[in-house]
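Progress report, Aim 2. The chain analyzed during this reporting quarter is listed below.
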Amino acid sequence: MKYTIEVLDASKPVGVDEDGQVQYAPRYYLLLTNRAGRCWQSTTYWDATIEETEDGPIMDVAAAKANAEWAAAVALQMLESGRRLNPHCWDEVQPIYGSPIWEREVHLWETTPEE
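Predicted structure tokens for the chain:
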């Protein structure tokens, strides 16, 4: 397999409880990695929905995670079948630590232009 894809959580603050503690809700995104260690993060996020009730807020985490997992499966299937992903939906992020791409970029960072 040329690519792996993970569903990750970047929780976001959604309010404060009666004790003044910040409350967080899951915010899922995708991280796509190739064999060389290059990584791309999805520009789309899947947020847990929060419904206010008489007994307090109810958070639906399962639907957000299921939607992110479905999107991950579709993206991976597209790549495995030779199709390309929409580049507007992905941002390249730092490569995997220790990967060949990371090693090459570290050397570029350490090289300073001669004056």
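Residues 61-80 form the longest helix (20 residues). The CA atoms of residues 71 and 77 lie 10 Å apart. These observations will guide the mutagenesis work planned for the next reporting period.
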